[in-house]
Structures are given as C-alpha cells and as structure tokens.
Amino acid sequence: MSDAARESRPPMFLRMLDRWGGVWNGVFALFGGLWLLLAEVFTWIARGMTRPEVRIGRSAIVSQLVRVGVKSIGIILLVSGCIGLILAISMQPPLAELGQQNMIANIVAVGVFREMGPLIAAIVLTGFAGAAIAAEIGTMVVGEEIEALETHALNPVRFLVVPRVIATIISLFLLTILGDVMAVFASGVITVNFLDVPQEVYISNTIEQLRMSDFLTGLLKAATFGTLLSAIACYNGLKVTGGAAGVGKATTDTVVQTVVLIIVADMIFGVLFLKLGWT
C-alpha cells in the first residue's frame, strides 16, 4: 500500500467506531420497527374485538394455526421428549452419589415447566415456522403483492401480519403445554424403567413439586416468545429488498434475531421472577 493511500485511511479507532455504530443503528432500528409493528397489530386486534365492522379474518387465523401449530406438533414432541430423556440421564449420576436419585422427578418438573418447555418450543418453532413466515411475506414483497393490497386500500398489517401473530401466540402457548407433558413423561419412562426409581415415587414427587406459579410463568414466557417470534418474522419479511437474495437474508435474520431476543427475554424473566419471589 502506498504512503498516500495509507495516510488517506481513517484511524483504526474511527473505523471500529463506525462499525459498532452501524451495529447499534441496526439494533435500534429493529426495536423501533418491532415496537411500531406490534402497536399497529394490537390496535387492529382491539378494533376487531370492539368494532363489529372490523373483521380480523378467522379463516386466515385458522389456516395459520394449522400451518404454524398443527404441523409443528410432531417435531415439538420429539425434541421435548429427547430433552426429558437427556435431563434424567444427566442428573442420575450426581444425584445417585448423594442418595437423592428420587429427586430427578422434582428437578425435571420444575426445569421443564418453568424454563425448558417454553424455550425449546420457541426455538424449534423459530426454525420451523418463523423463517417460513419471513420468506412468505418477503416473497410477496418481491412479487409486489403488498403494493397490490395497498393499491386496493387493504392494510397489509391487518390482512397478513395480524393472523400470523395471533396464530403464532396461540400455537406456541399450546405447544408449550404439549412439550411440557411430553418431556416429563419421557423423563419418567427412562427414570422408572432404567434408573430404578419407583413409578409411584416419580409421580408423587412431580405432583408435590409443581406449583401453579411454575405452570403460569412458563405460559407467560410462551406468550411473550410467540409475540417476539411472529413480530420479528413479519417485520423482516415486510422490509425485504433486493429480490431472492433479500428473501434469503430476511429468513437468516429472522432466525438469528429471534433466538437472541428469546434468550434475552428469558433472562429478563428470570431476574424479574427472582425479584418478585416467584421462583
């Protein structure tokens, strides 16, 4: 590199500052876009519940429920069952050394209902449905279908985003319950049949350990994760530019952003529940 070119380059500090500035600009743009999108979504939901002339589109919601929720049941049950097996097998050696092998049921029940159930369901649904929603809406943007809706005075958020948000929240809510039951059942199967814990002891420990707060906090997380998942997927789909490459970028961004924000939200919930004494 010539001396003139080297002198024309900005200092490394300024280059790093510019790079990090771009990252933070993207973060603020994401949060701002999600806030505005969700505000409009819940505005339309409120209008649909209070004004008879505003219809949300039940057929569209049912269609998305089948596409997002029903088709995800198999993979959610498979992953949740494997998680239950892994937890039981992993905890057996240290608990056996302490003579507390019967406590496997207690730990699995709390860990699954409070943390692992909603978290695993949300991450699986991100890859299964979140990327598909972003790609579908992004393809509509590239094909100018969104512009066609706006030309006919049809709001794309009302007709495209709202059904997907509602369906994703309901689906993740119900899938979390199924995943919780499957994980506890799979853990019980391996614990009773291979880890020498009596079936009566496993069932009684699970029932005695679980409280209503464990169940409700998990469902609260599921509803929040579903809102984040659907909003991020729709947001990235609506802002697609650049044709097929833009659609691919939108799907990648959706998965990465959703997983990161879900983990951050779960951490915030953990701190909040600790402060409120709900742990």
Supply the key terms.
mainly alpha; 279 residues
Explain how this protein is built.
The N and C termini lie far apart (60 Å). Helix 5 (104-142) runs antiparallel to helix 7 (156-194), helix 5 (104-142) runs antiparallel to helix 10 (244-276) and helix 7 packs across helix 9 (212-238). The chain is built from 10 helices and no strands. It has one domain (56-276). With 279 residues, it is mostly helical.
Main sheet: strands, sense, barrel: none
Model regions low in confidence, pLDDT < 50 over at least 5 residues: none
Task: Say what oligomer this is.
Answer: single chain
Number of domains: 1
Count of DSSP-assigned helices: 10
Helix content: over 70%
Shape: globular
Mean pLDDT: 88
Range of strand content: under 5%
Count of extended strands: 0
- Structural class of the secondary elements? mainly alpha
Sequence of secondary-structure elements: HHHHHHHHHH
Terminal CA distance? 60 Å
Q: C-alpha Rg, in Å?
A: 23 Å
The gist of it:
This protein is mainly α and 279 residues long. It is 85% helix and 0% strand.
List the helices and strands and how they pair.
Blueprint: H1 3-8, H2 12-50, H3 58-69, H4 73-97, H5 104-142, H6 145-151, H7 156-194, H8 199-209, H9 212-238, H10 244-276
Helix pairs in contact: 2-7, 2-9, 3-7, 4-5, 4-7, 5-7, 5-8, 5-9, 5-10, 7-9, 9-10
